[in-house]
Amino acid sequence: MTKVCFAQEMFFPLQSIQTLSAYLKRRGHPTDLAIGSPEEIVNYIKKTKPDLVAFSVLTAYRNHMLATASAIKEAGLKVPLIAGGYDITFMPHILKHSDLDMICVGEGGDPIIELADALERGADFRSLTIGNLHIKQADGGIVKNAMRYWMMNLDEAPFDDRDIYLEKDPYFKIIPFTQVLAGRGCPYPCTYCFNDGYKRIHMDAGMKGKEYTNFRSVDHVMAELVLLSEKYGSRDFFFNDSTLTYNKKWILEFCEKYREAGLTQTFSINGVIPELSEDVCAALASTGKCRLIRFGLETGNENFRNLTLRKTITNDELIVVTDRLNRYGLRYSMQMMLGLPGEKMEYAWESLDVARRITGPSGVHGINIFKPFPGLEINNVGLELGEYQASDVIAPGSVAPPTWRKESLAVIENSMNNVLLPSDEAYLASRKTMHLSGKTAVIEKPKTDQASALQSKAVLANAISKATSTTKKIEGTDKFGDIEMVFYDNYRRDKLGLQILKLSRYSHVVIRFPGLRPIVEKLITLPDNAFNRAVWKITEGLLNIRVHAAAPWSYFVKYFVFHSGKQVR
User: Rounded to an integer, what distance in angstroms lies between the CA atom of residue 403 and that of residue 401?
Assistant: First the structure.
């Protein structure tokens, strides 16, 4: 057997790790979990001596993974390292520029079993021809094995392994919700979502488009829910599917069998406005347990929503469906994004206004600061407009994707682009200055020939000197793969983008108290600061995260009394 240790930074149950652990355990390979800083993980690996260390990478924690991989190698540990996940799939070049030994692009269930089986046989991982794995050779070269895709009959997959977290630390036993995934994929081509790009990758490998989105059978899902209820005492089921309502027959059957099962747990789902028909809403309400329905408002401006986000939903449809949800007593959360590429200030204010107008008696808001995560088609819009630096949205060593969405920019005025692009090398210093002053750092773009190398270093040194002389300490971190920057930044580097970012800090407040708009309009002209961030963090925690996570006040008491030293998100 091969002992596999998963490693992560935060105390949060990653569904991907639970899934992979279930595959491995079914095959007889034991799994373990290391949580903490790179140093803590290194010490744990020294103690437990696993045969393989695996990372499931979210963009916000990419730098932690890279630092941990380097720390493991620097400690002289010979254990092979593998990373996978959406971030890795869209940034495969990261293997060459890291201390990882392997990456997995696409789905990892079958590949990790085959890898564990091979290691058990004593095989050299560098010689393996396992689909989806890219493997670094001794000379630094990369072998890219063929891409494959997931099983079509999802009922053949094992239920997620909950024990890997629950047996690791008592904190995981107080988390109020249990994550469940009923299927795979999403049928919609939204430009701001990873699904469309992920689908294209799999279609290039031979998958048919219609195969990308499918569910487990209702009976299979219900069997898992019953297990979660009886064995683990789950209190709330949080369905992570991009939409659970696109197949009307499936969701109606699910609601019927949920009632028949007599489950006492509440559940929350994602849906899409046109899918929330009269009969679907009636079925969800009939369960008496549908706690929250999350749907995408995304942005309040219809043209911007349709042309740039490729989401063809009108504001009238939003009003009709939210009225229906209110009539059935179904609580809902509208998800929206601020700081999108190409977004004007009036669009941002329009989003907050529309959200306020369609909020029901108990409606809540999922307000997200948009980030150009790798693989998103909408990133091309930001690149076309000069609002993003290519190094923010693509992998080291790769080239910018083709920008073929110019038709989406018809509603964008060129005059908004009051922006000076610094060089890639000088981006971090530039961003610091923007956060402090609201102005883009004046950094000369270096020449492109080799002779300009020394000039580039001088320009960078000068920019860093200017930025750091403004203040002794800058809150947050400087890298795209760090949690602080992902939480607080939208990565637009034009002045307007930074103003919208500052508006997002006050979004929860403005929706509920629109009379404060004149004050907020003045605040967002000032430099970004710790107060703005505190407002965002407090209102986001109390008015968004608490509701979406079904977290009672007792959870917060238990956390602060017993687990406050743990990073949970």
Answer: 6
162-373 placed in CATH 3.80.30.20: yes
**DSSP assignment, residue 201?**
H
Question: Cβ of 91: how many Cβ atoms within 10 Å?
Answer: 26
Q: Out of 3.30.1330.120, 3.20.20.220, 3.30.1490.20, 3.40.50.280, which CATH number does the structure's domain 4-144 have?
A: 3.40.50.280
Task: Of 66, 140, 56, give the one whose Cα is nearest residue 100.
Answer: 66
The angle formed by the CA atoms of residues 222, 225 and 230, to the nearest 5 degrees, is 125
Predicted local confidence at residue 492, as pLDDT: 85
pLDDT value at residue 409: 36
pTM across the whole model: 0.84
447: which 2 tokens? Answer: 């020449």
Closest by CA position to 87, among listed 109, 111, 57, 108:
57
- Sketch the domain layout of the chain as residue ranges: 4-144, 162-373
Q: Is the dihedral of CA 65, 66, 67, 69 positive or negative?
A: positive
Tens of pLDDT, residue by residue over 449-461, are 444 434 433 433 3
Cα(12)–Cα(288) distance, integer angstroms: 29
